[in-house]
Specification:
The structure is a homodimer. In chain A, helix 2 packs across helix 3. By secondary structure, chain A is mainly α. Helix content of chain A is 75%, strand content 0%. The longest helix of chain A is centred in the N-terminal third of the chain and has 26 residues, at 57-82. The A-B interface holds A 109-110, 112-114, 116-120, 125, 172-173, 175-177, 184, 187-188, 191-192, 194-195, 198-199, 202, 205, 207-208, 210-211, 214-215, 217-218, 221-222, 225-226 and B 32, 109-110, 112-114, 116-120, 125, 172-173, 175-177, 184, 187-188, 191-192, 194-195, 198-199, 202, 205, 207-208, 210-211, 214-215, 217-218, 221-222, 225-226. The structure holds a DNA duplex.
DNA sequence: GCTGTAACTTGAACATGTTCAAATTGATTC
DNA sequence: GAATCAATTTGAACATGTTCAAGTTACAGC
């Protein structure tokens, strides 16, 4: 069960070959159609060896997820370095998510459901995915704090986590999107990012103060469970 | 693949026995721990017979879902007949969802993930689950329209579908809730239902008009995909 | 060079969802 | 009552994720 980190060069080679074969095959055939035997076969190792480095097929998905996160982070680095406007930063970041994931669109459905399973070790609220989740949340913290938007501290504290949830919602929509060029998802992104930024601007209105407090308490309560 | 509806009394008996055995076992052992062989065994039929009436194990989950929906609808009927206040109706309805589902809490995780899988025939946005989804949406339409709340028509038109989404979100939270008596979920329900009703009251404020239109367009766009 | 040990590798074995061709049943028709 | 035929039932066979005990490798210490 425990993940065995390779301790020799030979082990590193094997682990890397298995991971690389898995990523390729997931992309080529999808998650379910990729068998552990096929992964082992392409990696040039035996079936049992795969289980030495990855406790289950699901754990290979986690690596897949990490892979796309790294692509995404690299893709938006220039934007985050250059741009100050929050709406532009947010829109660019979320657009980049779906652009980065586009090659995996056909695969994404089964992967998402694997990850959404609360009893899976991989579910984003749970233990195994925690390091990766924190990386993504940190990325959204940079999106927010690197902007020139003036956001009340109580809102700013919870915004990155909320944006991470928002990203997951967009991805779920994207999975169902069959429109050419995934245009509908891009439209929804443009709409929602603008809406979010606008609502952030309204958060200081007296009439919304009460609701804002409620919402913040709620988000804190919901997320601290994870 | 096609679902075979029983055409003889004998077939009806078999189908009913399989379904009943499945519901019992899902509750006793959970979804994954229940094997098709165990279902067939308890139902007193052979393994192959189960597949004559239910194309897959997942399809048995759909029946499970339908079962809880019927329990839920029955549970809230008195409330809906008596009460006029929207906040009370909504809170009672959502509370009843988690109360009804409580016996299945341990099982709910894997069931939810099965259902959330976009490539599953069962996913709530897709085809096979459509009739049931429409029943649930209709139930929320009754919650809204049977109240004395005065809601703008454009909002009222989309509210039931939105509340259905809201119910799914609450259920997802509930699945993770390990607090005694599921108190945290009940708290979140109280908070969110009050928030929803309050925001509905604010929807007519001029400053929110623009956002309201945006939000409605968005919800329509998101849901018509299904 | 030898030995011991930890790391690594292997593939057979197992459990379980699913398929399918063949067997059985039971009602309808003559 | 015999023939027919669709509905139903059966269980063996298959694919695949996972486990595990046994085998192999390679390096550290002598």
């Amino acid at each position: 069960m425990a993940i065995a980190l390779p301790k020799t060069r030979r082990g590193e080679t094997s682990r890397a070959a298995i991971l690389s074969a898995a990523l390729d095959l997931f992309q080529e055939r999808g998650y379910e159609a990729t068998t552990m035997r096929a992964i082992a076969g392409r990696a040039g190792v035996s079936l049992g060896s795969s289980y030495h480095y990855f406790p289950s097929k699901e754990h290979l998905v986690l690596e897949f997820y990490r892979h796309t996160h790294e692509l995404h982070a690299a893709a938006i680095a220039p934007l985050l370095a250059r741009e100050q406007d929050l709406a532009v930063r947010l829109r660019g970041t979320i657009r980049a998510v779906v652009v980065t994931c586009e090659p995996f669109h056909a695969v994404a459905g089964s992967i998402f459901s694997t990850v959404a399973n609360p009893s899976s070790p991989l579910n984003p609220f749970g233990g195994a995915a925690k390091p990766l989740r924190e990386e993504v949340v940190a990325l959204y913290a940079e999106v927010v704090h690197g902007s020139d938007a003036r956001i009340p501290p109580d809102v700013a504290a919870l915004l990155p986590l909320t944006l991470w949830l928002y990203q997951m919602a967009i991805l779920y929509f994207w999975i169902f999107d069959r429109s050419p060029g995934r245009l509908r998802t891009l439209e929804v992104i443009d709409e929602t990012t603008e809406l979010i930024v606008r609502l952030l601007g309204l958060a200081n209105l007296p009439v919304l103060r009460g609701s804002r407090k409620r919402i913040l308490t709620l988000i804190k309560s919901v997320t601290e469970q994870a």
